[in-house]
């Protein structure tokens, strides 16, 4: 489904991704692990077509994703419907007058009729357990409530792949447990999950595979999540623990 081939990426003169080779199959659940600044968020932006390789290629379902293709609004819409991105900073994702409108935005962009839009919004409000926030202004919600709203917005488009950048950040333990169970449920329902995280305590049972990024901005290990997380020497060596 996702094929990242010999990808390098630079911000001006700073090399941020080096020699990245990753294949991801439909239905996988993958954690991105690594110290701050190692390139996890950049990799997730690449997967979402926010940035493009300075060298190498990224393909989704056999089709190379580049800026030229995404300039075509039909292609771009179809791609962004399949790959949903939950930003690290929810404020960057929320801009409507209330939570209902916020969740309805994506389905309306897809051209669905209002009955279907309403059905999707109500399903997502229920799934995220935020029905009581329906008419609240997103701007005034707590961090955890904003995160749930942002996830509902992405799920309302029914994407195949869910990409999350440190979703546990700034959320209380109850919210983290809720999110953990939601991710497990979504993966069981067939969604591919790709998620950066530092929060090993709250993600037990979510991930089957881990990609480990080093301070040198390359992937130093691609292995089962449990094998990585139980390898204390490795985690210490790469400044993860
Ligand atoms: P991580 O998510 O693993 O903490 P990032 O992908 O955010 O790492 O960042 C990787 C590197 O890229 C860091 O050194 C960071 O300072 C740099 N970086 C991130 N965004 C930008 C940007 N917009 N311009 C210049 N450098 C950036
Ligand atoms: Mg990051």
UniProtKB/TrEMBL annotation:
Family matches, as SUPFAM superfamilies: P-loop containing nucleoside triphosphate hydrolases (SSF52540)
Q: Which GO terms describe its molecular function?
A: ATP binding; ATP hydrolysis activity; ATPase-coupled transmembrane transporter activity
Q: What PROSITE patterns does the record point to? A: ABC_TRANSPORTER_2
Q: Which spans are transmembrane here? A: none
Source organism of the structure:
Clostridium magnum DSM 2767
Q: What is this protein called?
A: Nickel import ATP-binding protein NikO
User: What keywords tag this UniProt record?
Assistant: ATP-binding, Cell membrane, Hydrolase, Membrane, Nucleotide-binding, Translocase, Transport
Supply the Pfam families for this chain: ABC_tran (PF00005)
EC category name = hydrolase
Q: What is its EC number?
A: 3.6.3.-
Q: From what superkingdom does this record's organism come?
A: Bacteria
Question: Which family, according to the similarity comment?
Answer: Belongs to the ABC transporter superfamily.
Entry keyword Cell membrane: yes
InterPro entries hit by this protein: AAA+_ATPase, ABC_transporter-like_ATP-bd, ABC_transpr_CbiO/EcfA_su, ECF_ABC_transporter_ATP-bd, P-loop_NTPase
Q: What is the lineage of its organism?
A: Bacteria, Bacillati, Bacillota, Clostridia, Eubacteriales
Q: Which residues form a coiled coil?
A: none
Q: List the SMART domains.
A: AAA
Subcellular localization: Cell membrane
Q: Topology relative to the membrane, per the entry?
A: Peripheral membrane protein
Quote the cellular component terms of the Gene Ontology held in the record: ATP-binding cassette (ABC) transporter complex
Enumerate the spans annotated as ABC transporter domain: 2-240
